[in-house]
């Protein structure tokens, strides 16, 4: 298979955020827009890092006046921050526009008119960024609509995850995307790659030879990527019920995080090399065995408005992934993510081999040490290690040294979407997924997709069905 060209910067776009820019956000009334993307735009405005002249057009199938859309975004900021009062709200709001009536090949709704007016306001040399914050099932038709209405040429386009919903739909979508756009125009998001702490996993590994030297099957017994949420899905039942935890989180964010851990040292830490290293790791993922996947649904899920009474959608998924290469052969990568769980935690953990695993007789029964990165907010690095118990009785005890990763002088950590939007403007692909890695991810889950296990019930506020615990044996989940 010939890899699609992946260039760090478009030959046709200058790596600057100075060009007047119109962002069109499809799905602007949705959960992603309210919780993550609109706050990031406002944060960029607060930081003075948007282009000097810009507009943000929210696109949706319903109808809203520009003023109603501004109120809608203000309410989202009041709920999720940054607070409007903490930034240049009035100036920001004046740049917000809404184009209703949807956007399809047959009917572009109000978008062409609103876009033309915004471009006219901003002058001749306007950059247009299309941002698809809509459910993945709508990506293909929207891409076709770009071609029909002549909106592809000279623009940049940002696809949310999941890019596809199966190997087949991924191929269909990507073929259309490659037909309509040049690869240099396309950005495929996985916002976990933009977490500050995700970047810490990479930099901690390569800046510390002691860490780099144990980052392999000789010393690591298990790798765990565990994203637990107390969050419900009531606000976005229709998207969620059609998607489920496995597609929403596992084949997307958790596969990318697992690949971040698993990757070979990249040639350098530049955008192209990082993306290529992750993609290469994904290509070594073994096809998932459906017997090593556990799906769960929290009790009460089907009572949510908009969820069918007989829905079998998974709200939790856990699996064991094997990576067939010299560094990781035989090391299980345990991935788990679910809604309505016990806690909000996002962790990448390397469980190291115990003295017994390494054939040592001294302190053979000592617990395995762990190196664990919390991905929440600014992140933290927690190293749990066995030490002597103080006092005359002696014995061993495990203690944890915790290093907050945002506890240093300098700017505060930025929201992931702040990084992503800036990187789209500058053409830097280090935080974006690569098409070959995505193809490998969909290939790895293809057999599972045709043969999904039964969905098991779990009580809200727990760690999921017991079968998920068993995946970690003979070890156990770090979060428990
Ligand atoms: N929510 C989150 O935390 C995150 C979501 N994502 C991704 O963002 C995308 C959107 O997710 P989210 O915002 O949660 O989903 P929502 O269900 O909230 O949908 C977003 C918006 O898309 C529009 N929409 C729905 N169906 C269609 C359709 N068939 N065609 C065109 N537009 C449609 C709706 O707006 P209207 O009715 O106004 O047209 C809706 O408000 C998904 O791909 C998701 O995976 C990524 C990271 C985080
Ligand atoms: O992509 C998604 O991510 C969020 C979790 O991301 P966070 O940045 O809010 O922690 C998840 O809740 C959502 O279901 C999913 O679509």
UniProtKB/TrEMBL annotation:
This is Glucose-6-phosphate 1-dehydrogenase. The keyword Acetylation does not apply. It comes from Kineococcus rhizosphaerae. Catalyzes the oxidation of glucose 6-phosphate to 6-phosphogluconolactone. The gene is zwf. InterPro entries: G6P_DH, G6P_DH_C, G6P_DH_NAD-bd, NAD(P)-bd_dom_sf. Keywords: Carbohydrate metabolism, Glucose metabolism, NADP, Oxidoreductase. One of its GO terms (biological process) is glucose metabolic process. The keyword Oxidoreductase applies. Residues 1-21 are annotated as: Disordered. Substrate binds at residues 191, 229, 248, 339. It holds the Pfam family G6PD_C. PANTHER family: GLUCOSE-6-PHOSPHATE 1-DEHYDROGENASE (PTHR23429:SF0), GLUCOSE-6-PHOSPHATE 1-DEHYDROGENASE G6PD (PTHR23429). Residues 204-473 form the Glucose-6-phosphate dehydrogenase C-terminal domain. One of its GO terms (cellular component) is cytosol. Its EC number is 1.1.1.49. Pathway: Carbohydrate degradation; pentose phosphate pathway; D-ribulose 5-phosphate from D-glucose 6-phosphate (oxidative stage): step 1/3.
